[in-house]
Amino acid sequence: MGKNHPNVDPYIVSRVRALESLLLEKGILAPDAVDRVIQRYEADTGPMVGARAVAKAWTDPEYKRLLLDDSRTALARFDLDYAMLMVVENTDAVHNLVVCTLCSCYPWPVLGLPPTWYKMPAYRSRAVSEPRALLGEMGLDVPEQREIRVWDSSAEMRYMVLPQRPAGTEGLAEADLVPLITRDALIGVALVTPSAAAAR
Amino acid sequence: MDGVHDLGGMQGFGPVEREENEPVFHADWEAAVLTMMRAGGSRGLFNIDEFRHGIERMAPAHYLRATYYEKWLDGVTRLLIEKGVVGVEELAARRAFFEQRPDAPARAALSGPPPAREAPNPNWAQDVIRKTGATPRFAPGDAVLTREIHPHGHTRLPRYARGRRGVVHRCHGIHVFPDTNAHGQGEQPQPLYSVRFDARELWGESAELNQAVHIDLWESYLLPGR
Predict the structure, then answer these.
(1) What ipTM did this prediction achieve?
(2) Whether residue A129 lies in the annotated active site
(3) Interface contact flag, B17 A146, Cβ < 8 Å
(4) pLDDT by residue (tens digit) across A141-198?
């Protein structure tokens, strides 16, 4: 348990079980629904689809254009029907960063469930007002000549960063690039590095 | 509402703490809360805007102290009581049952096997684009000024971006309006825009160099900028 999760509080657990049992009884919650959710999010997703789309974009310029202009069609190649995603491209001139200041909106279908830090006030408060300082504290120094463009997810549109392909990966095939592409790079709080061991 | 959930630009929360190898769920009750939220939404018991506003109405100190799924538990419970789906008394009785049996699964309180049902609309939370034929008032490149408003109800115009000048980046189509949809006042769909704000417009002399924020804003939040 991290510091953000101090409790398996008996009071909370009893409240959860109470509501859960009533919703089961009323037929609102299917008996196997919780197990299916655990299976889906623990086994089936994670940043996988987002990373696969980025690796494909790095190796196929036509796919990259499609991903940036029409992400729904681009993501359909991975058997995902997701209409609400905007993919924003990092360049030498622009570094993109994704946040939701009002709640914790996050592109679940391509990145899985959000990490705890993404949902906490420390990140949500400063990502819009002092992103360069915040990213520096998180270990990413963005040079001042590079614009930091923050996307505050205030509606149902969701945002994913298309990171820059790192130098030294020119010889790698699409499938070998996928493991280098981390969730943090797709949020914009990290860069992709050529070594998987160095990646978060 | 001008609540503590509206965190953009606030200070004093300390450094971002990243947890190495963070598990998807920290406890199984978190998965149960996520599932209940989705079950309620997909059955039409509440919409996504009512859900968000349910969380915003937490006591401010509790909101800041609570973990993510505790916030969801609080919001979902409040909504299901308000909607008459569960009763305060039956909920209290069940809580007493599980306080005595802290390790019991939820079905331990049931007298028979629960009825099985499938969720009718798994995409309920994303189903917000409407084809109304409305013509967007603004086009990419247009200067806009956000309204200076402080509604007591739900809004998705963050406090830090009110009364500020920006430029329309693109139109996302016609979207359900959260400010009414959260309050039983209908979807009232209207154009949604990505609006670009220079950091100096938002943060004045304290702005970092070479920074901008893009925010998705509904048409009725916006006035012509010139």
Answers:
(1) 0.95
(2) no
(3) no
(4) 999 999 999 999 999 999 999 999 999 999 999 999 999 999 999 999 999 999 754 4
Q: What would the pLDDT profile of B165-188 be if each residue is shown by its tens digit? A: 999 999 999 999 999 999 999 999
- Choosing from A14, A21, A71, A100, the catalytic residue is A100
In CATH, what class is A46-198? alpha beta
Q: Among all residues of chain A, which has the CA nearest to that of B45?
A: A28
Residues 109-138 of A with CB under 8 A from B: 112-113, 115-117, 119-134, 137-138
Question: Domain locations in chain A?
Answer: 10-43, 46-198
Assess whether pLDDT exceeds 70 at residue A7: no
Q: Do B199 and B215 touch, CB atoms closer than 8 A? A: no
Q: Annotated catalytic, A153?
A: no
- Decide if B197 contacts B143 (C-beta within 8 A): no
Which chain A positions have a beta carbon within 8 Å of B36's beta carbon? Answer: 19-20, 23, 29
Q: How far is B141 from chain A (nearest CA, A)?
A: 17
CB contact under 8 A, B8 and A124: yes
Catalytic residue selected from A103, A125, A129, A154: A103
Going A151 to A154 to A157 to A158, the CA torsion angle's sign is positive
Q: Which residues lie below 8 Å from residue B183, measured CB to CB, with a gap of 6+?
A: B50, B53, B153, B154
Euclidean distance between CA atoms B207 and B212, whole angstroms: 10
Q: From A44, A20, A39, select the one nearest A31 (Cα to Cα).
A: A20
Phi then psi for residue A175, to 5 deg, are -65, -30
Active site (annotated) includes residue A125? no
**Helices assigned H by DSSP within A26-165:** 33-39, 48-59, 61-69, 71-76, 108-111, 116-119, 121-126, 131-137
Give the CA diameter of chain A. Answer: 59
pTM for this one? Answer: 0.95
- Walk me through the domains of chain B, giving residue ranges and CATH numbers: 28-126 (1.10.472.20), 143-224 (2.30.30.50)
Q: List Cβ neighbours of B167 (8 Å cut-off, separation of 6 or more).
A: B141, B142, B143, B144, B195, B196, B225
